[in-house]
Design goal:
- It is built from no helices and five strands.
- By secondary structure, it is mostly beta strands.
- The protein has a domain of 39 residues.
- It has a three-stranded antiparallel sheet with strand order 3-4-5, with no helix packed on it. Strands 1-2 form a two-stranded antiparallel sheet.
- A hairpin with a 6-residue loop joins strand 1 and strand 2.
- It is elongated, with a radius of gyration of 16 Å.
- It starts with a strand and ends in a 19-residue tail after the last strand.
- It binds zinc ion.
- The site of zinc ion has 8 residues, from loops.
Length: 71
């Protein structure tokens, strides 16, 4: 959910979402969404959540291949 910066309407469903992994150790994932305000017909982007990725256990210095596919 995001709030339109122009009229303040809350939009529940994003048109589209994507995630970006940031941070030195790529441990924080931010979820972004594109929203369309139904009142003023304005499109805007907003971050709608963030989560910390689990850190790798120290016994495993190299993450398995499927965990390196962050985009
Ligand atoms: Zn609006």
């Amino acid at each position: 959910m995001a709030r339109c910066s122009v009229c303040g309407l809350e939009i529940e469903k994003p048109l589209k979402t994507w995630t970006v992994v940031v941070g030195k150790n790529r441990r924080t994932r931010i979820i972004f969404g594109t929203f369309l305000c139904e009142r003023c017909r304005r499109k805007f982007k907003a971050s709608i959540g963030r989560e910390r990725l689990q850190s790798e256990p120290k016994a495993k210095p190299y993450p398995p291949p499927h965990q390196t596919m962050y985009v």
